[in-house]
From TrEMBL:
InterPro entries: SET_dom, SET_dom_sf, SET_domain_protein
Keyword Membrane assigned: yes
Domain SET span(s) in chain numbering: 52-197
PROSITE patterns named among the record's database cross-references: SET (PS50280)
Transmembrane intervals: 21-42
SUPFAM superfamilies linked to this entry: SET domain (SSF82199)
Cited PANTHER family: SET DOMAIN-CONTAINING PROTEIN 5 (PTHR47332)
Superkingdom assignment: Eukaryota
Full protein name: SET domain-containing protein 5
Alphabetical keyword list: Membrane, Transmembrane, Transmembrane helix
Keyword Membrane: yes
């Protein structure tokens, strides 16, 4: 047996801390997808929508937003966009100057799209263009690999919490391109919503964060639940986060593989009840890791199939991450973690996990 003691990747990235020396760009936290760096040719085929899926409209109280112009299928590719520009996630340079310099280097069209975006957290007395540019950047930028990028098209997506968001974005390093996919079926006329932060936490915490970072009071379907509904949702979301922290301790050998898989199944059940569908590919892929480490051949297979299904929805069927889990479903022993812990039947997905 080898002693590969790698933990499953942590479930979420902590927010970027600012410190005195280095300036860290504020950013919307992307979902913690692992996207392999592989030379890969994108073929725009099956998912290419025949009609534009959405239009940009003014939404009262929210500025602009994206509304579905037709019914959209779960997993459909909604946006594929190059960054207008990217910056390192932290810099010792003046951030205003950096953003200004990169912005000036873009096309007139790109600059117009940039200046059309909204911003928060800038006192009205500050009117210097480079300060406004930085505020726009910080309000709209998203994680793009090791860097932070601005994508004027994607930036139009408004926010929803928990079961309220229906679109997810991911950066493909190999293509230097941001992808947005539909997480659910979306009906004509519905607003497309993504999530700006990890919303697996209670309503008061979510609202406080969104208000201080993005300057709005969240009125999404989950934040608008009545008290009883909201309390039940808060309890589920808090529990989900606790189970995430718990199963991650398998990485240090604090819990057994069976306990780790049980925790993953508990997360799945709670998320089913909550209607939280995002990050399931990642969750199942973590289960694949645990099952492979304990040499549970059939569990690797079933978790890998589940991971492939949900990664396909969130990342696109042609993503390298999907191809990788499909390989593990076919050949569990090919997994890096195979047989790195004591052999143990850890178990497959909860029977209703689909
Ligand atoms: C999405 O809609 C299709 C039909 O258009 C349906 O077959 C499918 O079950 C729906 N998926 C979900 C997750 O509701």
């Amino acid at each position: 047996m080898t002693s590969t003691k790698r933990k499953p990747p942590p479930p979420k990235k902590p927010p970027q801390a600012r410190d005195a020396l280095r300036f860290s760009f504020g950013l919307r936290l992307g979902l913690a997808f692992v996207v392999a760096v592989v030379a890969y040719l994108f073929t725009n085929g099956a998912n290419a929508p025949n009609r534009p899926a959405f239009e940009v409209v003014r939404i009262p109280g929210k500025g602009k937003g994206l509304i579905a112009q037709r019914d959209i299928q779960q997993g459909e590719l909604l946006i594929r966009e190059k960054p207008l520009f990217r910056v390192p996630s932290s810099t010792t340079e003046s951030p205003q100057q950096l953003v200004w310099k990169l912005l000036q280097a873009t096309s007139a069209e790109g600059q117009a799209a940039f200046w059309d975006l909204s911003y928060v957290n800038l006192p009205e007395t500050v009117t210097q263009r480079d300060h406004v540019a930085l505020a726009i950047f910080e309000t709209n930028a998203v994680a793009a690999g090791q860097q932070v990028g601005i994508f004027p098209g994607m930036a139009r997506l408004n926010h929803g919490c928990s079961s309220a968001f229906n679109a997810v974005y991911t950066w493909r390093e190999s293509e230097q391109m941001l992808y947005v996919h539909a997480l659910r079926n979306i009906s004509k006329g519905q607003e497309l919503l993504t999530t700006y932060t990890d919303t697996k936490r209670p309503r008061n915490e979510r609202r406080a964060f969104l208000s201080s970072h993005y300057g709005f009071e969240c009125t999404c379907a989950v934040c608008s639940l009545d008290n009883a509904g909201s309390l039940a949702s808060d309890r589920r979301l808090t529990s989900i986060s606790e189970f995430y922290r718990y199963f991650a301790t398998w990485g240090n050998g604090d819990i057994t593989g069976v306990e780790a898989i049980e925790a993953i199944n508990n997360i799945w059940k709670l998320e089913e009840e909550e209607g939280y569908w995002s990050e399931r590919g990642r969750l199942a892929a973590d289960a694949v890791w645990i099952a492979a480490a304990h040499s549970d051949f059939s569990a690797v297979r079933s978790w890998a199939r589940l991971a492939a299904k949900w990664y396909t929805i969130e990342l696109g069927g042609d993503s390298e991450t999907v191809l990788e889990v499909v390989r593990f479903a076919a050949n569990p022993k090919a997994h890096t973690a195979w047989n790195s812990r004591e052999p143990l039947p850890v178990g497959g997905p909860w029977p209703s996990a689909g």
